[in-house]
Design brief:
Strand 9, helix 8 and strand 10 form a beta-alpha-beta unit. By secondary structure, the chain is of the alpha/beta class. The chain is built from 9 helices and 10 strands. The strands form 2 sheets. The chain has an 8-stranded mixed beta sheet, with helices on both faces.
Length: about 290
C-alpha cells in the first residue's frame, strides 16, 4: 500500500507581513507622531520663552528689612510712563562713584542684599532697579525695555554729576554692557558671570531646538563688546554650571585690551563675591 504524506497538503500560504514590513510600517506611523510632539515642544518653548528667561519671585521688602538701613526705595518713572522701584543710596565717601547695579534673572532685589551691603560699606553710592515686571515694578520685561531703562537711569546719575560704575550680574551683564556701549563715559564696567548671548546659552542647553529662530530677547553681548570703550572687568568661576566659563573667556578675547578677566578657581555662578570680586573692583578703581 502506498502512503501519501498529507501534512502540508492544502495548507494556506502565510499571509502575515514579515517582521521587517511590520517594523517599517510602525516607523512610518511614528514619524508624524514624533513631528507633532516636536512641534508641540517648540510651540511651548516659543509661547513661554518670557517666563523661562525672566523669573521674578516673591515680594519686595523694604531695604531695612534686609539690613540696608541707609537705602531708600524710590519710584522712577520711565519715558514710556512705566514706574519702576529702585533701591538708592548716595555715596558715603565724597567723590566716590555710584554703582548702577543690574541683577540676575531670578528672584528680586532682596536676594542681592549682601552684595549691596559691601558696596555701601565701601563708601560707594547705589542705584539698583527692580526690572519691569519684577517685584515692586510695573510693566513687562524685555531686552529693549531693560536696556532703555538702564540708559535712562545712567543719564539721571550722569546729569547729576555722579561718576558711575556699571555692574551687571548674570542676566544683568547684558544690560550693563549695552548701557556701557551707549555711554562710554562710565567709570568702569563689571560683568559678573556673563554670557556671550542668552541665545547661545539656550542653544547649548537645547541643541535640538532652533533657538536662534525662536528667541526674541537674545541679549547678544558678543555683538557689542568690541565697541565698548569703558574699562571692563569680567569675573567668572571655573565651576559655573549655569553659564560656563568659556562665555566669559570669549567676551574677554573679543574685548581685547579694554577688558581684564578674573577666572575664579572653584567659583560657581553665585558665589564670586565670596572669592574677592569686590576687592578686585576697588583695586581697579584705585588704579584708574
Amino acid at each position: 500500500m502506498v502512503q501519501t504524506d498529507h501534512t502540508n497538503a492544502g495548507a494556506a500560504p502565510d499571509s502575515r507581513p514579515s517582521l521587517g514590513v511590520r517594523v517599517k510600517g510602525a516607523l512610518i506611523l511614528m514619524v508624524p507622531l514624533l513631528a507633532v510632539i516636536y512641534a508641540g515642544i517648540v510651540g511651548y518653548m516659543y509661547v513661554n520663552q518670557q517666563s523661562l528667561l525672566f523669573k521674578p519671585e516673591g515680594e519686595l521688602p523694604a531695604p531695612n528689612m534686609v539690613g540696608l538701613a541707609d537705602v531708600e526705595a524710590v519710584s522712577l518713572t520711565m519715558a514710556d510712563g512705566v514706574t519702576l522701584t529702585a533701591w538708592s543710596a548716595p555715596p558715603a565717601t565724597e567723590g566716590a562713584p555710584t554703582v548702577l547695579f543690574f541683577h540676575g534673572q531670578s528672584g528680586n532685589l532682596a536676594d542681592r542684599a549682601d552684595r549691596m551691603r559691601e558696596i555701601l560699606n565701601s563708601g560707594f553710592g547705589l542705584l539698583a532697579p527692580s526690572y519691569r515686571g519684577y517685584p515692586g515694578s510695573d510693566g513687562e520685561p524685555s531686552e529693549l525695555a531693560l536696556i532703555s531703562d538702564g540708559v535712562q537711569m545712567y543719564d539721571q546719575l550722569d546729569g547729576d554729576g555722579v561718576p558711575v560704575v556699571l555692574h551687571g550680574q548674570s542676566l544683568g551683564t547684558a544690560v550693563a554692557a549695552a548701557v556701557a556701549e551707549q555711554r562710554p563715559n562710565a567709570q568702569l564696567l563689571v560683568l559678573e558671570a556673563p554670557f556671550t548671548a542668552t541665545v547661545d546659552v539656550a542653544a547649548e542647553r537645547y541643541p535640538w531646538l532652533p533657538v536662534h529662530a525662536l528667541m526674541r530677547d537674545q541679549f547678544a553681548t558678543r555683538d557689542l563688546i568690541e565697541g565698548i570703550m569703558v574699562p571692563t572687568l569680567i569675573f567668572h568661576g571655573t565651576e559655573d554650571e549655569t553659564v560656563p566659563l568659556h562665555h566669559g573667556e570669549a567676551l574677554a578675547a573679543m574685548a581685547g585690551d579694554s577688558a581684564e578677566i578674573h577666572v575664579i578657581p572653584d567659583g560657581t555662578h553665585n558665589d564670586l563675591w565670596s572669592h574677592g570680586l569686590w576687592d578686585q573692583v576697588q583695586q581697579a578703581l584705585t588704579a584708574n
